[in-house]
Amino acid sequence: MDAFSLPQMIEKAKSAYEAEDFEEAARWYDRAGEQYALQDDAINVAEMANNRSVCLLRGGNAQAALEASKGTEKIFAQAGDLRRQAMALGNQASALEAMPRLDEAISLYLQSNELLKQINDRDLRIYVLQSLSGLQLKRRQYLQALATMQAALDIKQKLTLRDRILKKLLQIVFSLLGR
What is the Cα 80 distance to its own chain's centre? Predict the structure, then answer.
């Protein structure tokens, strides 16, 4: 097998991902993770595992995606990296959602949202809240889903036409409910 430097492996992973060759991207992230492990770099091992998880999920293998990211949130928590901890939880939630293990996914999205709220990461939080709202709808938690979507729209800085219409409709619904 050809010898590649760590930056080359990561670049090959990114290129494969952009080309939507998710299996190939996952393999490159796995190789990069092995190299980081040889360097005793737990943070980057966890980062590569999460990147691999995203690739596996995009490639349709939710179970492998969950297994790849499992435990990485603890490594990020120990390092005090709340953003990557939240992202790891979000990756796990996405895999669980695809399986579909919806209650577990909801729980992890809620944890991710709390971490993102602490660090005021609006962009990722909007994505997590929208995903959470969709799951709450699937679980027939209609009012909770509406409130979650309202929260997502409230923190979004630039609303699209669709967002503005949805926000207005939510305001009407909540006013009718007396909230």
Answer: 18
